[in-house]
Amino acid sequence: MWPADGGTSGKAALTALAAFALVACAGSTGGSDATAAPRSAAAATSASTPPSLDVSAPPLSFRADSATRSVTFHLVAAHGQANSGFNFNGYDGGRLAITVPEGWMVSVTCENRGPLNHSCAIVRRSTDSEPAILGASSPSPISGQPAGTTTTFQFTAQGRGTYRIACLVPGHEQAGMWDTFTIAGAGSRPTAMVET
Ligand SMILES: [Cu+2]
């Protein structure tokens, strides 16, 4: 089991751990498909605060595999009308927070549900116009990808610290189209959380 993360107060830990454990077991058989991840953990949180996100379910489909030291997730730009569409998976202004251990491979799917062009990129500062890590953005992130298109990219999580998942189409990140991405110590637990 992973050591407890002391920095989670004020945020709702969701089903990342459950998904992680399932994937870790599946990894021993060579498979990495966690589509059968149970959703009961997220449902259990509904008694207190509404579950903001089931990380193991679409659209985020957050999965972590300790055997291959890899994390995959699916970002949806303009998921619904939250923040007038300037959101990822319905979250803007840093509310969605993904943490991965340093050295792990990160595979991201970037889907644009439009109607504007959007992109997905890992940046260090709000003013940055190019990814902070080699390969950590969808193609041509400043012009963005057209509505209805999906791209993928992979990078290795190098450089501990706090980053942003941002849309680099001019004006979009400034409008709040960004979330939080953290590269933590190599022994940390991969998580996806939403601020309550
Ligand atoms: Cu955008």
Structure, explained:
By secondary structure, this protein is mainly beta. It has a single domain (11-28, 52-195), classed as Cupredoxins -  blue copper proteins (Immunoglobulin-like, Sandwich), CATH 2.60.40.420. Helix content is 9%, strand content 29%. It is built from two helices and ten strands; from the N terminus they run E-H-H-E-E-E-E-E-E-E-E-E. A six-stranded mixed sheet has the order 1-10-4-9-8-6, with no helix packed on it. Strands 2-3-5-7 form a four-stranded mixed sheet. Strand 2 and strand 3 (70-77) form a beta hairpin. The longest helix has 12 residues, at 16-27. The model is unreliable at 1-51 (pLDDT under 50). The structure holds copper (II) ion. Copper (II) ion binds next to loops. The site of copper (II) ion (CU) has 7 residues, from loops.
Overall morphology: globular
Number of domains: 1
For the sheet with most strands, the description reads:
6 strands, mixed
Q: What does the oligomeric state look like here? A: single chain
What small molecules does the structure contain? copper (II) ion
Any idea what the radius of gyration is? 16 Å
Overall pLDDT score? 81
| CATH architecture assignment | Sandwich
Span from first to last CA?
25 Å
User: Do you know the CATH topology?
Assistant: Immunoglobulin-like
